[in-house]
# Entry
Amino acid sequence: MKKNTYIKSYCTIQNNEIILNGESIFKSKSDLFSDFSKKAYQNFEINYSKFFKMDNLSKLALLSSELLLKNEINSDSEAKIALVFANKSSSLDTDVKYQNSISDKENYFPSPAVFVYTLPNICIGEISIKHQLKSENSFFIFEDFDSEFMTNYANNLLSSKKADKVLCGWVEYYNEVYKAFLYLVANEGKIDHNKHTLELLNKN
Amino acid sequence: MIKEVFITETNCITPLGFDVATNIQNIVSYRSGIELHLNSSLMEKPFYASIINDDQLNEAFAKVSSSENFTRLEKMMILALQPIVQKSKFDFDTKTGFLLSTTKGNITDLKNPSDNNINNVYLHQIAKNIADFFGFKTTPIVISNACVSGILAVSVAKKLIQSEMFDNIFIVAGDEVSKFVLSGFNSFQAMSDLPCKPYSINRAGVSLGEATAAVLVSSDKQNAKIKIIGESAINDANHISGPSRTGEGLFRSIENALAEAKINPNQIDYISSHGTATPFNDEMEAIAFNRLGLEKVPVNSLKGFYGHTLGTSGLLETVIGIQSVLESRIFTSLGFDEMGVSQPINIIEKNENRNINYFLKTASGFGGCNTAVLFQKIN
# Structure
């Protein structure tokens, strides 16, 4: 028989607002994501000096994961928290930025600091470094959030004991349009982890 | 009872041939796909890379389809999958999955971003174009996880079959040599001025390459070429553009794969490693292999034959590794001369016959990612 799994906590970031477990916890009137993300970073006193060097996708992923992970990490023991993320635009926002730096012969200035962010899984690397998670990780691309796939994948990581918890979700950023919907799946909790709950939480 | 998972079909499209047998013939004759290219649309100065000939590609594709709607990379992907799809005898229903592995997909189309072209750059779109060609009915799953993508796809397929989401999964992996990627690796000063030399004291960075590879992963043992017995993909949590000095993520990935497979390190008969020929990667792998007591196991990097084919490499090298198991012979690690890593490892220096029961495939990449998958011979 398959063991039940649960959603321990969840977080949505969109339209300059952060909603944690259904409650709005931060809002700003910023016009640009760079300004909003900076204010949120300061508000939650996140300590990761590289934050301001990261691309917007990584900033979005790091902010949302911070709120779900900060109470899960204990410096005495290693957390086996897997990271399974997906989005639609991959790293397209940074891809366009990098492409602009190589398109024009007269204005050719490819930068390794930009190029490295032309991979969507870099944001997983940033979160792993920030929280010292030496854990299972993978990045997927779908046109829309695929709740069935995500449920199956997270449950397999838990049932095979490759992870004790799985931080899952959607981190999409392209051209100032963004949404993060992250949730922490565990073997215990109050909200059932299944396709329908995820669709409901993702819509709200 | 956890389901058993097998690879039942393989194929690849590379500069060394458009099927597995031709690729093996060329590897056996120590022939590399890496050549000097002069193509200013890709790079201002001459560069070494392993690139598929356009005329040969178009000629082969014309035998499969008369459509002109596909990009160069999509043609390469369709050609890799086509014979496998043709041979398969089951219906493409809700239990048939489709996985696509790529790092940059149709990134070349970003050059002239008209509306239509930018649509093609979306990775779910390239997957849809391929899925529609073959008539797959389920939502395509795209893996884009830097240089481990190709082998990670095998690990993902195993998980999805064991979680009973699918019975059969077609995987295709592909990436192209592009101005985008060449300029990026060049900006990192990670490109070799000569064909790459994995693990050599004379190594000076990567040679890039392009290829596609395809496999069918199945819960059905009939026609099985190999069994997937363990897998893990652990992050270094150390640096986004360089590997951990201690090889921690790779070490743990292999350790977890061994635990799942319930075998010991000394049972592994052959390792197909990542071996990009950058100073840090090769050194890190040597350290990780030593920490696991794998220093005596014959190991090769196939980058000397194909260059670094990014999101394809893990799957392409698995396809060739499976052939090593089936034909009981291991192939030279082309480009190697004098040992250039600080820890001893057993680099394969000439093709030789060897019975292989357990085969380990590893990869590592940007973002601190690592993947290890263990395979067992079908007896």
